[in-house]
Each structure stands twice: as C-alpha cells, then as structure tokens.
Design brief:
The complex is a heterodimer of chains A (565) and B (236). In chain A, 59% of the residues lie in helices and 16% in strands. Chain A is an alpha+beta fold. In chain B, the strands form three sheets. Chain B has a seven-stranded antiparallel sheet. In chain B, strands 2-1-3-4-5 form a five-stranded parallel sheet, sandwiched between helices. In chain B, strands 13-14-15 form a three-stranded antiparallel sheet. Chain B is elongated, with a radius of gyration of 21 Å. The chains are: A alpha+beta (565), B alpha/beta (236). The interface between A and B is medium-sized, with 21 and 21 residues.
C-alpha cells in the first residue's frame, strides 16, 4: 500500500513539471488540430523526457523499478498519434533496457507497446470524428489503465525466472496501474483546463474586438472628423478599459478621452515625438513604460506612463493616428497592444472604403450634371424657336411659355440634391411638357394618371424626365400621326411603378451615348434600392413603347438612408 | 426671285421661317411641307430651286429626303436645324449653307447672297446623294420603311410604283429611275426592277427576251434590251 503513495508522490513531481510545461508556448501545439513535423519533434522530445524521468524517479523493487514511465508514452500516443507514441515508447523503452535488471527486456517492449496503445486510441477517436475526446481525462485514464495491465502481462510473459516475475507483479501491479492512470488523467485535465482558459481569454478578446468594431465603424462611415473621432474614443476607452484614448489627424488632436483630459485637449497640435514618428514613418510606435517612459510634453504631472501610437492610413498615405495610453501605475497589456493595432488596420480599411464611397457619390453627381447637359441644347433651341414664332401671333402665350421655360431651366440648374418628391419631379416635367405641347401643337397629347397618395414620395432626382424626353424624342417627334403620351404613377404589390408610354413603338436598343438618360435612371434605382429593381422597356413596334421604373414603397426613414449611399 | 420650298415638321417653325424668308424679298415661296413624303410630291410638281430643309423630321429625316429626289429635279439645299450636331458638321462641306434655329434675319440675308451667287454661276447642287437605305411606302395610315434585303421586285402600272416583298405589295412615291440609280435593284424591263439576290432562275425565250423566276415564284418579264445588261451585271 505504501508503494501506491510513494508512486503517487513521484507522479506529483511529473505533474508539477507538466504544469510548468502547460504554461510554456509548446502548449499551443496541443490544440487537437493536425500537428506539423516541427511540432511533433518538440512533443517527441518533451514526452520522451517525461517518460525517462518517470524511470529515474521510480523506486527499485526486487531488482526491478516501480515507475511512472507509462504516462509519457501513452499521452504521447494519445496526443500525437501512433507514430509519436511508438517513437516515445521505443525511446523510453530502450533507455529502460539500458539500465538492466531482470525485467529490462520485457519493460523495454512493454513501454513501446504502451506508446502504441495511446496512438491507437488517438486514431480511433479521430476516425470517429471525436477529436475533442483526446483531451478527456477519462480517456487518458482508461488508455493508461489498459496499457499498464498489458505491461504486467508482458512482464509475466517475458521476464524470467517466471516466479520472480509473478512475485514482482503481485507487488507492483496495483500501485503502478493506479498511479500511472491517475497521473495521466491529472496531466490531461491540467492541459485541458489551461486550454480552456486560453480559449476563454481569446473568445473574450474577439468578442470585445467585434463590439468595438461594430460600435465604431458606423461612426467612422460618417467621415473622419473631430465629431466622429470624439464618439469613437469614448467607445474604445469604455470597451478596452485603457487609461486614455486619442485620435489625431496629421496636425492636431481630434479627440481625447480618459486620464489626463485636463491638459490633453482636442484641437491641440500633435506634439509628442512618438506621435510625430508614427505619422512621419507610417509605423506603430510603442512606449512600454519601463524600458522607455512616456513623457507628456504638456505637463510634468501627467499621470500617463505608457503609450501605443498606431498610424491610420488610406492608400499608403498617413491621415492620422490612434493612440492608447495607460497611467504610470498600470502595465500596458499586450492584449490591448495587439487590439490597438488591429483596430487601426480596420479603421484604415474603413477610411479607404469611405473615400471610395465619396468618389462614387461624386461620380453620380457628375453623371447628374451630364444628364442636365444632355437635356438642354436641342430642347432649348427648339423651344426658343417656337416661342419666337408665337410672339408674332400671341404675345401672352409667348410670355407664358417663356415663364415655363425659365421655371424648367431654373429647377434644372439647382437640382443638386439626390432625392426630390414625386410632386416636384412632376412639376418639373410639366413645365417641360407645356413647352413641347406648344412646339408640336395638336400632334401631342399628354395624359397623366397619378396616385395622389404618392405625391409626397421621395424619388431619385431626374427619374421621370429622361423617360418623358425619350417618349418625345423616339415617340412623338418621330411619328407622322397624332402622338400620345401617358404618364402613370401607381402602387402595385408593395412597389411603386412609374411608367411612361407612347403610341409610336419606335424604341430601338440605344447605341452608346443615346439612351444614357434611361441607363442612368436604371443604375440609380439599382444603387438605391437593389438590383432586383430598375427600369424595363417593352416595345411593340409601330404600336407602343412602355418604359417602367419599379422600386419598393418604403418608409420615410428608409428614404433618408438612400441619401447617404 | 428664287423659287423656294420650306420643309419642317413643326408648324411654328415653318411659319417663322416663312415670315423671315418673305421679309428678305428674295424668294417666291412655293409652299411649306410638314414631312418628307409631302415634300417629295411638291418637289415633283413645283420643281423648286431651293429647299429650306429641317433635318430632324419624323419617319424620314432631311438627309433621307434628298436620297429620294431624282437627279434632274435636285434643288439647292439650305439646312435648318436647332442644334449643330456632329452629323451636320460632317455635312457642312458639301452643303450650300445651313441656318441655326432660332434664325436671325441678318444671318438669313447672308444665305440669300450665297444662294444668288451659286444660282448665278449655274452650279449644280454640291451635296452628294448617298444610296437609299430603305424605301418609304404608304401602308394604311402609316409610312412603312422597307429595307432592300426584303424587296423581291418593283413594278410600275397606271396607279403608280409598287414594291413587292414576301409580306405583300406596297405603294411608294419613289420613281423607278431613283430606285434603279440609288439601290442595288436591276432593271429587267421598262416597268420592272428586280433584286438580284432574289433571282431563282432566268429562262431564255426564242425571241431573245426572257423570264425571271424569283425565289418566291413570281415570273417577271425580261426584255431583249435589258437581258444583255442583266447578263453583264450578273456576270453570266
């Protein structure tokens, strides 16, 4: 019985070493994932040492050694597979063989077999797709138990003289089976706990990172300004718990929050040499607080002692920095360091994206300008020509038309908003249509059917005008008979349908620059509402052309968000 | 007085131009037309010396009208347009003059001067007439434009000129002569033009004349005089 406790004592030594091992970076290899050759080599060395140590710490009994060698071999097989188990078992076995004694040969063989057993359990669990079971203490316990029973059998089978072997096994069997199994189980449970702690820390870190990213990216998408920076530093400080957070642009502090806010103000120029270095060299600067101390140039009483300054960049160009600070009384956590760096990368991407969006908006605006430019010359000169003719006959009508024309031109010139109400768009095309009606006389009739509820609806500017222009140009102006145009706006299955129909049926697939107006309408509807919406053209030759624009009927708030896109 | 015709699809534009043209005192206005077909008829009747011709018109534009006028009737042309697009720029070289709407009286006087000089020198109209791309035909109340690939043959009778396609027979204002000159159609008899791509076989008769069987199975007369030309053209 005393042997059991003594062996357990030996096991305790192994466990202590295992504990130290579990704290070391080698621990990362025990993640249960596929191991690479280099990692296998390290594990081989570690477990072989364990196993050999088990032999040395063993107790000499009746010319043999009661020991805990099995733990290393079985666990090596369990964690690293049959090859590793076999290698460790063989190494420890050969070592044992070299020490001599009447069980030297049988113990050498049995240790190798024990490694193999660990490996077979590993294979079995992997094949059954239960790799998490590898780190279950019960599995380690059972595997070692079987291995030790087998060892005793091998000793009985191979060690001679047989009577000595029986006498030895009677004494050591129970203590060794118990001690090794319990030891292996304890070892694995420690490794598992350590692993859990790491996973938990990692998970907490990730979730914190996601929370901060989620809360700040939205803010940043509104632009990189002192206002958005102010909101961001608050969020980052709350979530990371660091002493202070600052965001700067190239020249000055945009926002500062936390310890030292009494003398670190937004609007102050960037003065610390670390920030300047980060801006100048476009690299992360870390002042850890013990090798190098953060020295506040503004106040000698500043409690801040360490700092991390990460540059924010767009397209290789540094646009500012984000800095995390800790007071002199606190250590700057490594986790916050990698966190700060990750955050800066994320923001840099977001800034790039914002710049891209900005340019896209500019593009849309210039397309709108193009659209306005495209409207004018033909319509304008024909309108002026018509009015000049009418002046001779009916000065009042001519005056009226000039007013319509100036209304039309005025609204065209000042329409730099993206969104207008349907009513505004209708008013705009009506002044256009009044002039065209005068121009074409009785060759043109226009019928309008507008759902009055939709008058207040927000729509992208210039949605209707290109449709009308198209109907006039390819419809009425190209028709020998009476030209008719129908303008309809109605609701249909949760969608808004804007349609313009003419009775000419002359629509042809436009070439290049022609049809630019319709294409832009389609594109902007798709940009604002999604690709399943947009513009369709149905043409029955010589009968009619029907151009329809469809988009979802949305609430006011949804329309506001369109402006930001 | 220069005998002039005004062609523009917009009533106000016609009236305004008439007014200005009258004011110069240089022209006798033979009338004003609202479309190319109407204009073609008036040109044949009135034989004007000059057209004030709008480019943008329904169905057939100003350029297309010119391709439909017989050479001996071809008047001088002053284009009138609202906006000088690239198309007109390319045409600028070949045309006598062009006016931009709204037309100023002073600018019109310059045109008068140019036209007078040209007519005094007895120059023929400069613009080159391109090949016809399609034949305008009256069809119910509409103007139907037939492309040449679809034309089987053309014939004339007392009621006028008729285009035959697989879809049927259509009446056109164009003369056989214009069609022969400005299209790939070939004359096979005094009253017949045939599309060479639609000829299925040519039967030679004993008297030196012949018969053409078209792909649709129509039989067309071929006179002795045109049979020879036909053979040369078809490289038979």
């Amino acid at each position: 019985m005393s042997l059991i406790f003594e062996l357990l004592q030996q096991t305790a030594v192994i466990i202590v070493i295992a504990y130290l091992f579990s704290k070391s970076p080698a621990m990362d290899y025990l993640s249960g994932a596929r191991l690479q050759r280099r990692q296998l080599l390290i594990l081989y060395i570690v477990f072989s040492s364990f196993s050999i140590l088990g032999t040395y710490t063993g107790l000499p009994i009746q010319g043999a050694i009661a020991n805990t060698r099995a733990i290393g071999a079985v666990l090596a097989g369990l964690i690293g597979g049959p090859v590793l188990g076999l290698s460790v078992g063989l190494t420890a076995g050969l070592h044992r063989f070299s020490l001599g004694g009447f069980t030297d040969f049988s113990c050498g063989i049995s240790t190798t077999v024990e490694g193999l057993i660990g490996g077979l359990v590993h294979l079995y669990l992997i094949r059954r797709k239960k790799p998490e079971q590898l780190f279950h203490p019960f599995v380690a316990f059972s595997a070692t138990l079987i291995a030790e029973v087998l060892q005793m059998t091998i000793i009985l089978a191979l060690a001679r003289p047989f009577e000595d072997a029986v006498a030895l096994v009677k004494v050591i069997a129970l203590p060794m089976i118990c001690a090794n199994s319990i030891g292996a189980a304890l070892f694995i449970s420690m490794v598992r706990d350590q692993k859990r702690v790491r996973d938990k820390v990692g998970a907490r870190f990730s979730s914190k990172a996601f929370t901060v990213a989620d809360r700040t990216l939205g803010i940043l998408s509104r632009g990189f300004s002192s206002e958005t920076a102010r909101e961001m530093v608050e969020v980052i400080r709350q979530e990371t718990g660091v002493g202070a957070v600052a965001i700067t642009d190239r020249e000055e502090i945009l926002a500062f929050s936390g310890i030292g806010a009494d003398h670190h103000h937004a609007g102050n120029p960037v003065v610390t040499k670390w920030s300047k270095q980060a801006l100048r060299e476009n690299k992360v600067v870390f002042v850890n607080g013990y090798d190098e101390h953060f020295q506040c140039p503004l106040s000698s009483n500043c409690p801040l002692g360490s700092a991390l300054v990460v540059p924010l960049q767009v397209d290789q160009e540094v646009v500012g920095t984000i800095s995390l600070y800790e007071p002199k009384t606190k250590l700057f956590l490594n986790i916050n360091r990698s966190f700060g760096e990750g955050l800066a990368t994320l923001y840099s991407h977001q800034l790039l994206r914002s710049r891209f969006e900005e340019q896209k908006t500019l593009l849309v605006q210039s397309e709108l300008k193009l659209l306005q430019a495209q409207v004018n010359p033909h319509f304008l000169f024909n309108a002026l020509n018509t009015i000049m003719a009418i002046i001779r006959k009916d000065a009042d009508q001519a005056r009226g038309l000039l007013l319509q024309l100036s209304t039309f031109i005025r609204t065209n010139l000042k329409r730099n908003r993206d969104i207008v109400t349907l009513e505004e768009e209708l008013a705009h095309i009506n002044s256009y249509l009044e002039i065209e009606k005068a121009r074409f006389g009785d060759r043109l009739t226009v019928n309008q059917e507008i759902d009055p509820i939709l008058l207040g609806l927000n729509i992208p500017v210039f949605t209707l005008q290109p449709l009308i222009e198209n109907a006039i140009k390819h419809g009425v102006a190209d028709l020998l008979d009476q030209g008719q145009i129908w303008v309809r706006v109605y609701r249909h299955k949760g969608l808004v349908v804007i349609e313009v129909e003419d009775n000419a049926g002359n629509y042809r697939k436009p070439l290049d620059s022609q049809g630019l107006g319709l294409r832009l309408v389609d594109q902007r509807i798709k940009n604002n509402y999604g690709n399943e919406f947009g513009l369709t053209v149905v043409c029955e030759p010589q009968q009619k052309t029907l151009v329809q624009v469809r988009f979802p009927l949305v609430e006011e708030s949804a329309n506001d968000s369109c402006v930001n896109h | 007085m220069i005998r002039a015709l005004i062609i523009d699809d917009e009533q106000h534009a016609r009236e305004e131009l008439e007014h200005l043209v009258k004011e110069t005192g240089a022209f006798e206005i033979l009338g004003s037309c609202a479309n190319a077909i109407d204009a073609l008829r008036r040109i044949r009747v009135e034989k004007p010396e000059l057209l004030f011709l709008d480019i943008e018109m329904p169905a057939l534009n100003g350029f297309e009208l010119l391709t439909m006028i017989e050479d001996e009737l071809m008047p001088h042309v002053v284009f009138v347009t609202a906006y000088n697009e690239h198309a007109l720029k390319a045409f600028e070289e070949k045309t006598l003059d062009y006016l931009l709407k709204p037309v100023s009286f002073e600018r019109l006087l310059k045109t008068v001067h140019k036209v007078r000089e040209t007519i005094r020198r007895g120059e023929a109209p400069k613009h080159q007439v391109e090949l016809l791309r399609h034949v305008p035909c009256q069809f119910a109340n509409r103007l139907k434009l037939i492309t040449f690939a679809d034309v089987e043959y053309v014939f004339s009778d007392l009621s006028g000129i008729h285009i035959v396609t697989s879809e049927g027979q259509f009446y056109t204002e164009l003369t056989l002569k214009v069609l022969e000159e400005r299209t790939p159609l070939l004359r096979c008899q005094r009253q017949y033009l045939v599309n060479p791509d639609k000829i299925d076989e040519i039967k030679l008769l004993e008297n030196g004349s012949g018969k053409i069987k078209t792909k649709l199975g129509n039989l067309l007369p071929v006179s002795r005089r045109y049979l020879r030309q036909l053979k040369v053209r078809l490289k038979l």
